[in-house]
Write a structure and sequence with these properties.
The chain is mainly alpha-helical. Helix content is 70%, strand content 5%. It has a three-stranded antiparallel sheet, covered by helices on one side.
């Protein structure tokens, strides 16, 4: 990770490494796959393709795949204050979401988890640690894990 000098008492901005960005891309890709599987399972169980939640899940899959692709392409261009802390919080949140989605049958909960992960991605793009931390906590809450 490349660091910039910091003013005394303030954390330095650091640029995420290619490996960190690839790990984020993989996390968001994995969640997209899990959301897609929840959607397919719901359809197999009798949900209609036109059901609003099924349609929303499909939109979430596309959004999450695009986010994953963008993270993979962005690579080292994302600079954050406390990048290690941000990556740690994002990793915990995405792992919890992925785990919760793994065998999930509740379409509403899948929509909530996927939506919160998309909000997390938007928070990452703001580069604001407060927004990232809040969004990561929301993902963990949506996944049903206490923080």
């Amino acid at each position: 990770m490349k660091s910039t000098k910091s003013i005394a008492g303030t954390p330095a901005n650091t640029t995420l490494t290619d490996d960190q960005m690839q790990a984020l891309a993989q996390s968001f890709h994995d969640i997209a796959v899990e959301v897609g599987q929840v959607r397919l399972d719901a359809i197999s169980a009798g949900s209609k393709l036109t059901d609003p939640n099924i349609v929303q899940l499909q939109g979430n899959v596309y959004s999450l795949m695009n986010i994953a692709a963008n993270f993979a392409l962005t690579a080292a261009n994302l600079t954050l204050t406390n990048a290690d802390q941000a990556v740690a919080e994002i990793s915990v949140a995405t792992a919890q979401a992925d785990q919760a989605l793994d065998k999930l049958k509740d379409v509403d909960k899948a929509v909530n988890i996927a939506s919160s992960v998309i909000v997390l991605a938007m928070a990452i793009s703001t580069k604001d640690m407060g927004q990232i931390a809040s969004a990561a906590e929301s993902v963990v809450t949506a996944a049903g894990v206490s923080v």
